[in-house]
């Protein structure tokens, strides 16, 4: 009885290791792309919520029914920045139909090359004052 392995077994093991290495290298590219897309989505969500809560915390009299749009700089959103395709933040305040004391505040962030990716968040703001608990 001989110990060890044959040349055929060594060749098959080497071929399997090569296939495994190629599969892992392909997986690294996919995971990198998925991680980048997730980072962009989280950054867009953070920018949108910062804009929403800044508008939400404004005095009710100064919160006008209007639309504003601005280009996001690299400092404002480093994960979304691309010089050729700048990211944009659009913020608008609108009345809620059927509820005269409510205003809807919406923030939309667009980034990337065409087709552009987009994320939209919204909150409602009421002009009613807070009621104390007794």
Highlighted features:
134 residues; alpha+beta; four-stranded antiparallel beta sheet; 1 helix; 4 strands; 37% helix
Strand order of the largest sheet: 1-2-3-4
Mean pLDDT: 89
Hey, roughly how much beta strand do the residues contain? 25-35%
| Poorly predicted tracts of residues | none
This entry's quaternary arrangement is single chain
How would you characterize the largest beta sheet?
4 strands, antiparallel
Through-space gap between termini: 91 Å
Classification by helices and strands: alpha+beta
Q: How would you sum up the global shape?
A: elongated
Listing every helix as H and every strand as E from the N terminus to the C terminus, the arrangement reads: HEEEE
* Count of beta strands: 4
Radius of gyration: 26 Å
């Amino acid at each position: 009885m001989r110990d060890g392995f044959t040349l055929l077994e060594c060749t098959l093991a080497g071929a399997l290791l090569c296939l495994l290495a190629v599969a892992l290298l392909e997986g690294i590219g996919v995971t990198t792309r998925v991680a980048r897309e997730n980072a962009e989505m989280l950054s867009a969500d953070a920018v949108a919520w910062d804009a929403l809560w800044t508008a939400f915390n404004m005095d009710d009299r100064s919160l006008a029914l209007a639309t504003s749009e601005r280009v996001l700089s690299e400092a404002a959103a480093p994960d979304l920045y691309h010089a050729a395709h700048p990211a944009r933040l659009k913020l608008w305040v609108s009345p809620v139909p059927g509820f005269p004391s409510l205003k809807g505040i919406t923030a939309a962030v667009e980034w990337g090359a065409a087709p552009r990716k987009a994320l939209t968040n919204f909150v409602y703001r009421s002009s009613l004052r807070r009621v104390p608990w007794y």
